[in-house]
Amino acid sequence: MRRPTNLSLEPDAIERGQRYGRLHGKNLSQLVNDFLRALPLEPVRQRDLSPLVRRLRGVAAGGQTDREDYREHLIRKYGGH
Prior knowledge:
Helices cover about 60% and strands about 0% of the residues. It is an all-alpha fold.
């Protein structure tokens, strides 16, 4: 059973959603419903991520690598002159 609700959305987001909906045969309510149903209810666990995403997540988390560590990495990877 559906229940009406009010959402406050930015005009550009509404327009983008409507354009996307026309391309995919859905209205804005269906898009919002699909998006909300796809949200995970539990925190993402490290082991649930692909190896590539785990590596990227580590980089994005602001690791403790400093300039000298990076320089040494480049020397190992590409060789020194």
